[in-house]
């Protein structure tokens, strides 16, 4: 049964079971990385209630539901995702844009849930003590990693993007050291780059915040904080608007924890810009 059909099935549950089931289905990455007791603590119920709610959906227990969710969220090809998205949207450009806007709105609204807000606060608390933040993202996430590193630098934080694919990533990982923290964007099955980043992070005992909606549980459970950020619905093309919002929220939260450093850095940035503007006039 697809995740969408499972969500529809929650309408037949008791109010308590519906609340538990909807939390699990709306936060799949967090659910995959959590035990029944951990989910119960986040939802505000008992682990027995979590198990009974899962069983009410037709599963023997939480492990079986997790296996079904992991299979459902396994990344398909981008072409197939676009094909299914366009099939749903139809041939009108306006319908496709409406679908994208509605999906982005739902994903951003999900960031405002109490559970995700709590994960955001935990992520800020995890990254704040670091001497440097390394932001990992490859493929479509690489520009987001660079943008996040730029924002962090402007907030007075030492930061750098890890964006290389294949063996080139090894050079970017060479100088990881105690005092660093990782902010990782990763999805789907544990491809070799993200597996290497996790392994090196674990070897050095560095804190790691994971931004995902679907990363394999075996890796997701190794993160100190899992920040569940939706990239759209299953089988549709991935949309990254909510990820951008979450990254900006994280940086603003970090800036708030050390306002003088952030403001001092921006004042210095303005002074550098002024000097560069004057140099252009002199040259002219």
Strand order in the sheet with the most strands: 2-1-3-4-5
Secondary-structure-based class equals alpha/beta
State the separation between the terminal residues, measured CA to CA.
Answer: 67 Å
Low-confidence blocks of residues:
none
* Silhouette: globular
Largest sheet: 5 strands, parallel
Percent strand equals 5-15%
What's the rounded overall pLDDT mean? 86
CA gyration radius, whole angstroms: 21 Å
Helix segment tally: 15
Features:
284 residues, alpha/beta, 5-stranded parallel beta sheet, 62% helix
In words, what does this structure look like?
Helices cover 62% and strands 9% of the residues. It is α/β, with parallel strands linked by helices. It has a five-stranded parallel sheet, sandwiched between helices. Helix 13 links the parallel strand 4 (208-212) and strand 5. The longest helix is centred in the last third of the chain and has 25 residues, at 259-283. The mean pLDDT is 86. Helix 7 (78-89) crosses helix 8. The relative contact order is 0.13. It is built from 15 helices and five strands.
